[in-house]
Amino acid sequence: xxxxxxxxxxxxxxxxxxxxxxxxxxxxxxxxVRLRSLPPQFWLWAGAVIAAIVVIFYKVEQGKVEGKKxxxxxxxxxxxxxxxxxxxxFRDKVEGWVTELGKAFAGEFxxxxxxxxxxxxxxxxxxxLRAADTKDASTIRKASLRSLHDGFTSCFxxxxxxxxxxxGDACQSPADCKTGLLCNEWNVCAPPPEPYNMRLAYRTLRVxxxxxxxxxxxxxxxxxxxxxxxxxxRVSKEDVPVAVEILTRARFFVAVIDEDPAEGLPTSDxxxxxxxxxxxxxxxxxVGIWELQSGQLLARLRRRVDAKFVPVGQATVTxxxxxxxxxxxxxxxxxxxAVKRAVTPKKAxxxxxxxxxxxxxxxxxxxxxxxxxATDASxx
Length: 380
Prior knowledge:
- The protein has 380 residues and is of the alpha/beta class.
- Helix content is 52%, strand content 11%.
- The longest helix has 63 residues, at 40-102.
- The protein is elongated, with a radius of gyration of 39 Å.
């Protein structure tokens, strides 16, 4: 009996192994397993391998990014070679004129060869800026992106055979339109409005600017580079043909420079830009007209703008944004009318002391090649 009990209490194997097996069973049951520590050399090699993989991956991705940047830059150089000789000299010439007009006023001038009818009816280019934005080429380019048609263009230029802007092929972008057409605000393909706004030319030239190139160089994402590539592709296919065609046909360039009021600009809660506030307030404005082919200055004028808007009808407008817009339009139209009067040739007024018979005699003598008859007021 005692022998059987001793057999049951006897544990096979080494006691230390039996104790280790029992400890592992308790750890598994309790959810706590103690891992055996790894040597430091393992972690050093593992870290080195991971770092090498990261560096190799970064180098490969950087190579892809730089390759795509190079491809986009090559496209930009191709666009510059085809577009540069056609538009860049035009841009530089216009910027020089605008900068000169924005400096200290050199006095009024109207060329004898000026033709108001030709300027109003012929294809032209228009740009309107604040005097504060004409200091140099960079400020002109930045401010030109906000230049729009206004009351001056409506009252000064005479548009002929203008199609209905609401009728035409539907579009969502210029890519949906035929060459020479733009997608307007009614989502209809239509010819570019005349006069051609210099803002559209600057939008085309934006992809050739140093700022666009610097932004591309700083880009580190393939997605962003693809966006720049699409932007360049769109401009070269949609905007460039239109800009080149119009700037080639244009005969005159008209610039309007608004001087800030002497008392400064008030604050506005109607969402007006600084340029719009200047146009609304009484102020002086300068107008320059040039012939593009010869570069001849045809007119340089300075007029004070202070028109009064008189509403008609029974409806009363109280919305501040609408009132401000109406005042800007009437001021701009008043400036256009003043310019038209200034460049219209003055008809020679007949002498108040000369009678109709004397005028007829002078005309007959002129036809015969003789000098006009003198009028003697002292004859009794």
